[in-house]
TrEMBL record:
CC per GO annotation: plasma membrane
Designated name of the protein: Competence protein
Compartment annotation: Cell membrane
Annotated TM spans: 38-56, 68-86, 263-289, 301-319, 346-362, 374-393, 414-432, 438-464, 471-492, 504-522, 529-545
Record-annotated ComEC/Rec2-related protein domain positions: 242-524
Organism ancestry: Bacteria, Pseudomonadati, Pseudomonadota, Alphaproteobacteria, Acetobacterales
Topology in membrane: Multi-pass membrane protein
Domain spans labelled DUF4131: 40-198
Length: 709
C-alpha cells in the first residue's frame, strides 16, 4: 500500500482528471435505474456532495481522503445533475389520436431527406394550442411539436410566424427492441412533445416578429437560399450544411457514402469546422497586424488575434444553429483562448476535463448520445496521443534530410486521423453497428481539402454575400465539395468500407471508456498499458450478447424470428421496413421472409397456415398472425398472437397479444433448450422513469391545475 500511495502521489497532478469520469459514472448510475430514487437517497447524495469539499479542506493532505472525497463528491454531483434535469423537464402532453387543428409559432424550418431521395420540409412549432375537443381553450403546450409539411406545400414559412394547421399527431415512439435506442428519452430532454404530418397547407395568422433566435433562423434560411441559387444539387447541400448547419438537403445516398467512408464528421458542424474558422480568423488578424510596425512591436498580437478568432467562432456557431457539438467545441475554444491570454498551455487534458465536467453538470443527458461520446473519445485520444508522440514528431519535423521533414508533415495529419478514428470506432459499433477500414485514407485527403480550400471559400462567400458577389467564392467551394463527394462515393464502394457487426451493448461501451480513460489519463507507461485490457474486452462484447429468438414490436402488426444469420419477418404485407431494418442492423442479420408454409433446414421451426412453432429441447414458442384452424397447444411455453384471437391456447401460461403489447411495449423472446423461454419487455427493461410513457403511449392531459394544486 505504501508503494501504491507513493506512486499515486507522484501522479497527483492527474487525479483531478478523474473527476469528470466520476461525474459520468454518476450520470450513468441514474440513467440505468429501473425506477426513480426515493427522496431519502437524493437527500443523502446532496449531503455527500456537500461533505466532499469539507473533507478535502479539512484532511486534504491525506491522499486517500482527497481521492475518496473527491470521487464521491463528483459522482454524487453527476447523479444529482441527471436527476434534476429529468425532473425539470415538463411532462409529455396527451396528444389526440385523430386529426386536429392546432395553432402555434414556427420556431424552425428545415429541409429533411425523404426515403425516395428527395427532400421534405419540417417545421418545429412552439406554444402549441389544440383547437378542437376538450383541448380547446387550454394553455399552450410547454413542448415543441415537430410537423412534416405536405409535399405540395410551397408556401414560404419563416421562424416567428404564427400558423394554424390541421395535422395528425403522435407522441414520441417507444423502442421497437427492448434495450434499443430510446427516442422517448431523447425527446424528453430535447423539449419535443410529439411529431406528425400536416394534412392541409398551414394558414399564416400573424407575421414573423420574434426574438433573436428567430431572427437568426430567418438569416440561416436566407443564406441557404442564396447558396442553393448558385450551387444546386449535393454540392450546394453540402455548402449549406457547412455554412448554416441545415443538413436536410443531403440525400440519403450521400449520407450513407460519407458514413461508410469515415467522412460523416464533415457533415456535422463541430470542433473541426470551428477550429478551421477560428484558425482562418487568427491568421487573417495576425497578417493585418503585421502590416503595422507599431502594432507588431507594441501590441500583444497573439492575444488580440486569439480573441478575434474566438469572436468569429462565436458568430459561426450562432449561424450554424448552435448545436450541442458546436457549443461544446466553442467552450473548449474559449478555454484555449483563456490559456493564450494567461500564458498557459493551450490544449491539455485539463481543458478537456473542465469542459466535459461542465457539460455533464449542465446537460447530463448528452452523455448517452453519440455527439458527446464521439467528441470526448476523439479529443482525449488526440491530446494524449500527441502528448506521447511529441518527441518523435519533433525529430521528424526538424530532421536533417528533406524526406524526414516530408514524413513529419504527413505523419501529423495521419496520426490525427488514426487516433480520432480508432477512438471513435467502438462508439460507432455501439450506435451504428458497423466498422470501416478506409477512414484514415479518406480523411487524409478530405480534411486538408476542407481546411485549405472548402471552408476558406465558404467564409469568403459569407463576406461577399451582402455585396451580391457570393458566386465568386461559392463556385470554387463547389469544386472542392464535388471532390469530397466523389471521394466519399468511391471509398464507400471499396471492399471493407462498411462491415456490419452486432451492436455493442452499453455496458461494453462503458468498459471501453473506462479503458480509454485509464490509457490516456495516467503518465506512467506501465499503468497506461493496463487500459488496453478493458478496451480489448469491450471490442469483443458485441459477440458476447445473445440475440433474441423472436421479436415483436410495440405496434403488434409483425414479428421476426432469428434463424442463424437470417432474420425472418412476417406476415407479408404487414412488415414495417423501418423497424425491420433497425432490427437487422442491430443484430447484424440478413433479412428474410417468414412464409405461411415453410420449415427451417434444422427443423426447429415450422410454419403452416399462419401459425409458426419454434421448438428447442422440449420447449416451444407458438406464433399466430391470423385466425386459422385450431392448432395443438400441447407443450407450448409462450403463445404469440397478432390476430387478436383470444380463444386460442387459453391454457398456455404466457401469452403475448395486443393487450400485452399495449401495456408492456415491444417483446424479445429467448428460447433456451435447458431453461425454457425468457421474455423481456420494453417497460421491464426501461422501468418506470419520467420519460417512459404509460400504456398506450398516453401523456399528461393539457389541463389547467386546480386551485388546490
Amino acid at each position: 500500500m505504501a508503494i501504491l500511495a507513493q506512486r499515486l502521489w507522484a501522479q497527483r497532478g492527474r487525479l483531478a482528471l478523474w473527476l469528470p469520469v466520476a461525474m459520468g459514472a454518476g450520470n450513468a448510475a441514474y440513467f440505468t435505474l429501473s425506477r426513480e430514487p426515493a427522496m431519502g437517497w437524493v437527500v443523502a447524495l446532496v449531503m455527500v456532495a456537500l461533505a466532499g469539499p469539507v473533507l478535502v479542506r479539512w484532511r486534504g493532505g491525506w491522499l486517500r481522503v482527497r481521492i475518496g472525497a473527491g470521487l464521491s463528491c463528483a459522482m454524487a454531483c453527476g447523479f444529482l445533475a441527471a436527476w434534476a434535469a429529468a425532473h425539470h423537464a415538463p411532462p409529455f402532453p396527451d396528444l389526440p389520436h385523430r386529426a386536429t387543428h392546432l395553432r402555434g409559432q414556427v420556431m424552425a424550418v428545415e429541409d429533411v431527406a425523404s426515403p425516395d431521395g428527395g427532400t421534405r420540409r419540417r417545421v418545429d412549432i412552439g406554444h402549441v394550442q389544440l383547437l378542437g375537443g376538450i383541448d380547446a381553450g387550454m394553455p399552450p403546450m410547454r413542448r415543441v411539436i415537430r410537423l412534416r409539411l405536405r409535399d405540395d406545400d410551397t408556401q414560404a414559412l419563416a421562424p416567428g410566424m404564427w400558423v394554424t394547421v390541421r395535422a395528425l399527431l403522435r407522441p414520441p415512439m417507444p423502442p421497437d427492441l427492448p434495450g434499443g435506442y430510446d427516442a422517448q428519452r431523447r425527446a424528453w430532454f430535447a423539449g419535443i412533445g410529439g411529431s406528425g404530418r400536416a394534412l392541409d397547407v398551414p394558414v399564416i395568422t400573424a407575421g414573423g416578429a420574434g426574438g433573436w433566435n428567430l431572427w437568426l433562423g430567418r438569416v440561416r434560411a436566407h443564406v441557404a437560399a442564396r447558396i442553393m441559387a448558385v450551387l444546386p444539387g449535393q454540392r450546394g447541400a453540402m455548402a449549406v450544411t457547412l455554412l448554416t448547419g441545415r443538413s436536410g438537403g443531403i440525400s440519403a445516398r450521400t449520407r450513407a457514402d460519407f458514413a461508410d467512408s469515415g467522412l460523416a464528421h464533415l457533415l456535422a458542424v463541430a470542433g473541426l469546422h470551428l477550429g478551421i474558422v477560428m484558425g482562418l480568423g487568427i491568421a487573417a488578424v495576425r497578417m493585418v497586424l503585421a502590416l503595422s510596425e507599431h502594432a507588431a512591436l507594441r501590441w500583444p498580437c497573439r492575444q488580440v488575434a486569439a480573441v478575434a478568432g474566438l469572436a468569429l467562432g462565436c458568430g459561426y456557431v450562432l449561424l450554424t444553429g448552435a448545436h450541442l457539438p458546436a457549443q461544446r467545441s466553442l467552450v473548449m475554444a474559449a478555454v484555449a483562448t483563456l490559456a493564450i491570454l494567461t500564458g498557459r498551455r493551450v490544449v491539455s487534458l485539463r481543458s478537456l476535463a473542465l469542459v466535459a465536467g461542465g457539460f455533464l453538470l449542465l446537460e447530463p443527458e448528452e452523455m448517452l448520445e453519440l455527439p458527446m461520446q464521439m467528441s470526448v473519445a476523439a479529443v482525449m485520444a488526440l491530446v494524449a496521443g500527441f502528448e506521447a508522440c511529441a518527441n518523435p514528431l519533433r525529430l521528424l519535423r526538424e530532421g536533417e534530410y528533406a524526406w524526414q521533414r516530408a514524413v513529419g508533415r504527413i505523419a501529423h495529419p495521419a496520426l490525427a486521423s488514426i487516433l480520432a478514428g480508432v477512438a471513435c470506432l467502438p462508439v460507432g459499433m455501439a450506435h451504428f453497428a458497423d466498422v470501416g477500414a478506409w477512414f484514415v485514407l479518406a480523411n487524409l485527403i478530405a480534411v486538408p481539402l476542407a481546411a485549405l480550400w472548402i471552408m476558406p471559400c465558404g467564409m469568403l462567400a459569407l463576406l461577399l454575400m451582402p455585396l451580391g458577389l457570393e458566386a465568386l467564392a461559392l463556385v470554387p467551394m463547389g469544386w472542392g465539395n464535388a471532390v469530397v463527394i466523389w471521394l466519399a462515393h468511391h471509398v464507400a464502394a471499396w471492399p471493407g468500407a462498411h462491415v456490419g457487426v452486432p451492436q455493442m451493448p452499453m455496458w461494453g461501451l462503458a468498459l471501453f471508456f473506462l479503458g480509454l480513460c485509464w490509457l490516456c489519463l495516467w503518465t506512467r507507461p506501465a499503468w497506461r498499458a493496463w487500459g488496453v485490457v478493458p478496451i480489448v474486452i469491450a471490442m469483443t462484447t458485441p459477440w458476447m450478447v445473445r440475440a433474441p429468438d423472436v421479436l415483436v414490436p410495440a405496434q403488434g402488426r409483425m414479428l421476426a424470428v432469428v434463424d442463424g444469420p437470417d432474420l425472418l419477418a412476417g406476415p407479408r404485407g404487414h412488415v414495417d421496413r423501418f423497424v425491420l431494418g433497425d432490427w437487422a442492423r442491430v443484430l447484424d442479420r440478413r433479412v428474410g421472409v417468414l412464409a405461411d408454409d415453410m420449415a427451417t433446414p434444422d427443423g426447429q421451426m415450422t410454419c403452416r397456415a399462419g401459425v409458426c412453432v419454434l421448438a428447442r429441447g422440449g420447449h416451444r414458442i407458438m406464433m399466430q398472425w391470423r385466425d386459422a384452424q385450431r392448432a395443438s397447444c400441447v407443450g407450448v411455453d409462450v403463445f404469440v398472437t397478432l390476430s387478436g384471437g383470444h380463444g386460442a391456447c387459453r391454457d398456455v401460461a404466457r401469452r403475448i397479444d395486443a393487450l400485452t403489447l399495449w401495456r408492456s411495449g415491444a417483446q424479445a423472446l429467448y428460447l433456451d433448450p435447458y431453461r425454457g423461454v425468457e421474455v423481456r419487455a420494453d417497460r421491464q427493461v426501461r422501468g418506470a422513469r419520467p420519460w417512459v410513457m404509460g400504456p398506450g403511449q398516453h401523456g399528461m392531459p393539457n389541463l389547467p391545475m386546480a386551485r388546490a394544486e
